[in-house]
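Lecture notes, part 5. Sequence design as translation. It can be helpful to think of inverse folding as translation between two languages: the language of shapes and the language of residues. The source text, in structure tokens, appears below.
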């Protein structure tokens, strides 16, 4: 599905328990490849700094089930500044797309000091981000941490992820501070599974997952962490 020039994908989310996770993982390992970015234990840590505007539109539009919405975040991996991405996640009904632009540690540090002079406004996403800051009061709201185990398949550009130990740092929005105390929102034996694909989910993967539409959940890590941080 394409919308306004962007390719949209299906995104299905589920809460699962640890026993189901172990069974699903063992099946998927026979059918899909591990994410090449994973560490020796098969996981990698994701830390995202989410932004919202004066009206908390991303927060309240999700709660209201608004059909078309988006949110901005800065994402890092394994608490490193070697790869930093500005992302805008767009949602239309049950479809999602993601736009990205590279950032540097220096530009993020400047951004957190409200210095926007170093932003590459020639990049369409960065320009939209800057305009949202200027016009809508877009500001950093909450950091979201979790550990991800991911499997990929080229057929249907399919990706299945298991997100573990969803955590919210409570005292700071410094995305590079590894010492921030966190509160765990979703802890083992419960975890979040996400299934993403383009036009179709390959049948052999669908059968391996063996999860029906009735078990899907409207999960938002951003909303859960905002509410847990009590800054709404």
């Amino acid at each position: 599905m394409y919308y306004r020039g962007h390719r949209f994908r299906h995104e299905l989310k589920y809460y699962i328990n640890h026993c189901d996770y172990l069974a699903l993982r063992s099946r998927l390992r026979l059918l899909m490849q591990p994410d090449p970015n994973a560490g020796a234990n098969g996981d990698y840590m994701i830390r995202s700094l989410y932004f919202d505007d004066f009206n908390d539109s991303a927060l309240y539009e999700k709660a209201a089930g608004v059909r078309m919405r988006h949110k901005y975040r800065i994402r890092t991996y394994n608490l490193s500044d070697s790869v930093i991405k500005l992302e805008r996640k767009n949602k239309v009904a049950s479809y999602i797309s993601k736009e990205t632009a590279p950032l540097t540690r220096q530009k993020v540090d400047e951004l957190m000091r409200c210095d926007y002079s170093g932003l590459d406004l020639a990049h369409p996403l960065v320009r939209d981000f800057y305009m949202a800051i200027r016009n809508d009061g877009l500001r950093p709201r909450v950091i979201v941490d979790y550990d991800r185990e991911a499997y990929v398949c080229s057929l249907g550009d399919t990706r299945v992820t298991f997100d573990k130990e969803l955590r919210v740092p409570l005292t700071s929005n410094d995305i590079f501070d590894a010492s921030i105390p966190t509160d765990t929102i979703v802890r083992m034996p419960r975890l979040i599974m996400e299934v993403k694909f383009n036009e179709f989910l390959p049948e052999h993967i669908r059968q391996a997952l063996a999860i029906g539409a009735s078990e899907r959940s409207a999960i938002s890590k951003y909303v859960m962490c905002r509410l847990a941080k009590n800054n709404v």
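The translated text above is only one of many valid answers, since several sequences can fold into similar shapes. The chain has a mean pLDDT of 92.
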